[in-house]
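Re: the request from the purification team.
They wanted to know what the chain is likely to look like in 3D before they choose a buffer screen. I agreed to run a prediction and write the result into the notebook, where they can find it.
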Amino acid sequence: MGLFILRRLGVMLLTALCLTFIVFVLTNLQPNLEKVAKSEGNVRMTDAQVTQWLDNNGFGGNSLFRYAEWLGVAPGWTKTGVDGELRGRCINSRNEGTPPRFCGILQGDWGESTVFKADVGDIVSTRLGLTGWLMLFVMLLMIPSALIVGVLAGMREGSKLDRSLSTFSIASTATPEYVSGVIFITLFASSAGVKWFKGTATSAADDITFENFFLPVLTISLYGMGYIARMTRASMTEVMAAQYIRTARLKGVSFPNIVLKHALRNALIAPFTVIMLQFPWLLNGVVIVESLFNYKGFGWTLVQAAGNNDIELLLACSVVAVFVVLITQLISDIGYVFLNPRIRIA
């Protein structure tokens, strides 16, 4: 197991480097850099002035070297000219006095946001914490509900309960968040509806209550719940038709004991992988829901960074998303081995 984890960590590191380099190149295309220079400097800057501004602020040179600077494995400033003027990524307002030789993400320097005018690391950590609360409440609502629906539907295949719950699962999965979110807002949070929820999701950043937080949680949960419930139902149906379940029935074991003690653990093997993969999906889901409900978390920040060409903040959000995907996949593989003893690591 230890060797397997080390190999996977090595592959994860290589994958993270490749993905972040691709994102770095795409976000640092010349048109994007020109927009940053003109928005930070002067809209009427000439091409020569744009080039000089980019060189002075660490955006000049080839992409590979600037990626190494951004990582923190290459020097972040150079001396130019006769007077030895310093230019580069490390020459900024955050580094007073003598600038550090390396100032990349490995040193904890994520850059400065051009939109929020603050340290990118502080912004991402704060917004990610807010999204973490949203994801926690979504998981607490989505996973138990999905497992209950899937198990109840799969216990008796073809019954009325199975057809009803399966229809509900398909309908919830087929309805995207921006549709269900608008419906919930219209029905329960606007003057045209009942207006049960008078709070706003923006205020949930300071004080989470049922009124200002339940609708975003419900919107995300419904979409993911249907998919997990369908996977659980399919797995439960397969397990209930197994030979050992038939043997337990012939021995006179009660139906509740068959479901809880014999079928449930084996039926949860496949849904466990699906549940772990919901974490990367949640990062995509919160982009829509947080923008819809104006909840200023990680997804809202990602939209602001992309819409305002905030390169440093966009890169930081991309790194977080990449590592969430890779770590959840590793946890999923390890958990799958423990849930299914027949799986052996070769």
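For the purification team: The first helix runs from residue 2 to 27.
Please add any questions underneath this entry.
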